[in-house]
Amino acid sequence: xxxxxxxxxxxxxxxxxxxxxxxxxxxxxxxxxxxxxxxxxxxxxxxxxxxxxxxxxx
Length: 58
What we know:
The protein is mostly helical. The chain is 79% helix and 0% strand. It has helices at residues 2-18, 20-48.
């Protein structure tokens, strides 16, 4: 049982080392998209609190 766990851990480590660059790229894309969504939400919330522009017709 212990050797099975060690083999699984080694296979996971090997997989992580093999796919490390892809994992980093995916994490960066998720981080950038989360930040852009959050900043867009904060900016839009500030814009909503402003008074609307009223156009008068002649």
